[in-house]
Sequence to fold (714 residues):
Amino acid sequence: MAELLDRLQRAELPAAAQAFRAEVKDFIAREMPPLGADVRARSWMGFDAAFSRKLAARGWVGVTLPKAYGGAELDAFRRFVLVEELLAVGAPVAAHWIADRQSGPLINKFGSEAQKQSYLPRICRAEVFFCIGMSEPNSGSDLASIGTRAVRTERGWVLNGRKIWTTNADKCDYSIALVRTSGLPADRQAGLSQFIVDLRLPGVTVRPIVDLSGDAHFSEMFFDDVLLAGDALIGQEGQGWQQVNAELAFERSGPERLYSSVVLVDAWIRWMRRNGQIEQHAETLGRLLAHLATLRQMSIAVTAKLAAGESPLVEAALVKELGTTYEQEIPSIVEAALGASPGQPADPELLRAAAYLSHMAPTFSLRGGTREILRGMIARGLGLR
Amino acid sequence: MFAEAIASLLQDRCTPQAVRAIEQGGSPAALSAALEESGFHELLAPEDAGGGGASWPDFHRVIELCGAHALPLPLAQTMAARAVVRAQPLPNGWITFAPWLVREADGSLRAGQVPFGRTASHVVGMAGDVALLLPVADARMEANGVYGSLAASLRWEPDAGTALDVTLPAARLQGLAAAIHASLLSGAMKKVFDLAMGYANERAQFGKPIGKFQAIQHQLSVMAEHVAAAAIAAEAAYHTEDQGLPAYAACAVAKARTSEAAQLVASTAHAVHGAIGVTEEYDLQLYTRRLHEWRMADGSETYWHRALGALCVQRSDALFVDLAREVFA
Fold:
């Protein structure tokens, strides 16, 4: 058996994580703002700073960070449960999402003591929001080819370049940017470093990108002679690539790679029940259930590896590829079903939810690494490359 | 421990040559005796009753290996029958399941496409919620005519068989039978994946192994995803429990997910292999023929999707994520 498949071992959520679920459900029942299915369908792209602060007040932002810095020190399993419950109802979590999942753990792992003390408590209070700065106009899937550059001067680092497809940069306070500090794009992974960029510094311009649904979740960031203090560098100069890779296992394996469309299934079921159509689509529902139950087992298997301190990049890629395919199937199936009874048109809220997800579904297999890149990673994991 | 023991036994005795011979009507006696002597029939029986004391997860690992070796005997069903029927002694020999027995208008009993019907000596069947032990020797057998298939349809006179002292709704045995085929499918898919990987690394075209071509790599990556999904779905079913058996909804997911993957895995393996894969002399066909047969055996994904859909309909006020979670809870 291929070693990769042997490494994806079934695992269980520990009892403590199971017990935690009731607390989360209770919180959501009390604090979740009343939102229509079409708004909930934004899922982890929905930005609501007030809701993030409520979660933070409950101790649930920066959940895996140490208590010394204001974190909740939850294990990866309890974070899985928290995330799962929030996504199941389409809670607007985008404001704190990136800091909770990636930026906070990155600073905690590679940052200096001063950086930890400065940023982590503010992340945990949902006072500051982070975005990622990886992609560039000509460096998306070919991430190692990035050209944005920081040059060390007597005054500090001077940053020049441009980042794109940054989620919610216009609403964030900081971006953690992967930039070149030595060499040329031809040098690939060598010479890359990560910086915390204060998005209010002179020389930073953020331009939201309006998408086909009329939303503007993505942004473009321009850096023109932005002067960064010496302590903006995270970790070691030239180690950016290795640091980014540790981050990506967190990004790719979570429930957000399975649940982006799940709110639509619930809305669709409610509508079918009202219209007496649910029996007609029972087989389709059963298939969706079989896939989700299985994907969830796979996601928990990767979570167990993260909990054990491993960096299961290839396993996470495998689950993400399958998971995003599932996320993309749901709006396609629901659209076909809604159009199958022209005499009973869907109500506008359900129609808007289905339309939003159909419009945006192509991005599900782009964000966090494209399908083609992930298949290449899996092939490498199988020993074919 | 159990898995290692059966792996080496199957490696030695259940060779592709032996499987081919039995499929073509040869006697399974030698292979049968080797398995019986090793005590595998009693794998699930408690240790104090002279059994192996294996758990359901142990059982799953053993059955996966049976699938990976295309074992032409119903070892899994025999072991499971002995675990389900504890109150009375079962006959020696090979037992298979027919959990969808149909009582015809004239009272006769019909079981369509019984897996291993040609190599089993007895059938444990469900006529409604009544469990029956039916000797294959008393049945009229209709081979299905599919090349190499060991399945057969069986028909018994109205008074055939003996009632078993088992209180078991038919659905429970249906779920267990399906879960067994999920494990067999998972094992066979792993084997097929290994064959495809081996071939991709070995077969050279245009001056390099075909596994170096991105188009082939992506096919194998997708195949790996589905083999992994099927394997975890099958395994997870055996970690659930409802009155001593794997839970019904979990069995449903296991069979639905493995059956759905089987088609993709079989066709991808053949695509990677090119024409050699469909020849009688090459071993791939031993497993891909089974993938298609087992996909349908004890309910295809269509059957089990409907069963799960019925569960969604009953619980249509629950969050979909909660339903998915409860399946393997």
Q: What stands out?
A: The first strand of chain B starts at residue 95 and ends at 98. Chain B touches chain A through 54 residues (CB under 8 Å).
